[in-house]
Amino acid sequence: MSECLDDFSPPLKKILGQLLAFDTVSRHSNLALIEFIQGYLSDLGIEATLIFNDEGSKANLYARLGPEVDGGVLLSGHTDVVPVDGQAWRVPPFQLTESDGRCYGRGSADMKGFLACVLESVPSFQQANLRMPLYLAFSYDEEVGCLGVRSLIEHLGSSDKKPAMCIVGEPTNMQPVYGHKGKTAMRCHVHGHACHSAYAPEGVNAIEYAAKLVNKLSDLSDQLKADSDSRFDPPYSTLHTGVISGGTALNIVPNLCQFDIELRYLPHVNAQPILGSLKNYAEYSLKPAMQAVNEDADIEFELLAEYPPLLTEPQSDLAQWVAQWSGCSDLGTVSFGTEGGLFDKAGVATIVCGPGSMDQGHKADEFVSLEQLKSCCSMLANLRHWMSVEPSQ
Ligand SMILES: [Zn+2]
């Protein structure tokens, strides 16, 4: 029986519309959305655990279906979305607009489309005779450095029953993704010493010392190209300066300059020695010269955000199973980061595979196509089947 896309799953569209209507931009609370999902699950007889942030303004949701045994599969998604400020939207961002086989709205691709597919499929997972548990893990604050999911993973680690594998539903056009780079973002504060520019040698010019550090960073970035892995794009680790500020007036030697740097590193690369050589340069080459002029001069590094890389062998069971369930045997990597690295680090084998494309994510008129949603539902149906039948000998 063929299914017309136009008639495709009214319940799914309804849930997607409900999820999109919550403005869960990361700077806002996600509690209204989380309570909506908790209520939806509760109506189905499923008890969900909420794991709140310190302020109680945001929460992760964690739920289990099926038998309380070790192993099983975790479906992971974040509930927050990026802002719409300054973007020229032609449709209202916080509601579902359906047109030409596409569902528009902020977060439709990244990643409420996946959440809607998962929620819509919950009743059929309940009806199946699952031989292992299915976990739902919906986080907050992914878009601002994968912050929320960490307490959820801690919760998972404290339980004696743990999922064996995880599918993160970030938008990959339903291509199974086995790897991405890790990221560390830092802010460097250079404290110099101010004086009138006519007496410049008596001051410590924070901008000029920051410039030396930025140059060092640029040299390090060139060196990183020697260590490559052709499965990633670009095939080497990258290090760059993204923002810089300092100084107050031309006739004052600046006493402060700060700049933000970002390292995106390959899974086999250790980030510590790279950042360590930058810090050593500051500590042993620059600071002595600065402090010879003024002992209060200093250079400090502040960690802004970080997440680990993801690398699951493409030949692993999970990667091959997700390839079967999604119907896409062309496994790949992505340039953006996900919570997958954190699950992987916690010992849960992880693959990223979800509906929609990051070409649309974070942009005005973000959308996910009905075909992508349909393909995601089909992956979940195949997963359900696999989870509910005994493996054949
Ligand atoms: Zn995302």
Fold blueprint:
Elements: H1 10-20, H2 31-43, E1 48-52, E2 59-65, E3 73-78, E4 97-99, E5 102-104, H3 108-127, E6 134-139, H4 149-158, E7 165-168, E8 177-180, E9 182-191, H5 206-224, E10 238-246, E11 256-265, H6 271-293, E12 298-307, E13 310-311, H7 317-326, E14 332-333, H8 340-345, E15 349-352, E16 367-369, H9 370-388
Helix pairs in contact: 1-3, 3-9, 5-6, 7-9
The protein binds zinc ion (ZN).
The site of zinc ion has 5 residues, from helix 3.
Q: What are the defining features of this structure?
A:
4-stranded antiparallel β-sheet, elongated, alpha/beta, Alpha-Beta Plaits, Aminopeptidase, 6-stranded mixed β-sheet, 393 residues, binds zinc ion, 9 helices
Account of the 3D structure:
With 393 residues, the chain is of the alpha/beta class. It folds into two domains: 5-180 and 310-388, Zn peptidases (Aminopeptidase); 182-307, Alpha-Beta Plaits, CATH 3.30.70. It contains nine helices and 16 strands. The strands form four sheets. It has a six-stranded mixed β-sheet with strand order 1-2-6-3-7-15. It has a four-stranded antiparallel β-sheet with strand order 10-11-9-12, covered by helices on one side. A hairpin with a 6-residue loop joins β1 and β2. α7 crosses α9 (370-388). The longest helix has 23 residues, at 271-293. The two termini are 31 Å apart. The mean pLDDT is 95.
